[in-house]
Amino acid sequence: MKNVLITGATRGLGRALTVQLCEQGYRVYASGRDAEALAQLQQQTGCLGSCADLADAEQVTALYQRASDALGGIEVLINNAGMNTRKAAVVDTELAEFEWQYAVNLRAPYLLCRAAMSEMQPRGAGQIINVISTVAKRSSPTMGVYTTMKQGLAGLNNVLMKEAQPLGIKVTAVYPGGMDTEFRDQARPQYIRPEQAAQKIVQLIQDPPELVTHELLFRPPAELE
Ligand SMILES: NC(=O)c1ccc[n+]([C@@H]2O[C@H](COP(=O)([O-])OP(=O)(O)OC[C@H]3O[C@@H](n4cnc5c(N)ncnc54)[C@H](OP(=O)(O)O)[C@@H]3O)[C@@H](O)[C@H]2O)c1
Question: Which domains does the chain have, with CATH numbers?
Answer without folding.
Answer: 3-218 (3.40.50.720)
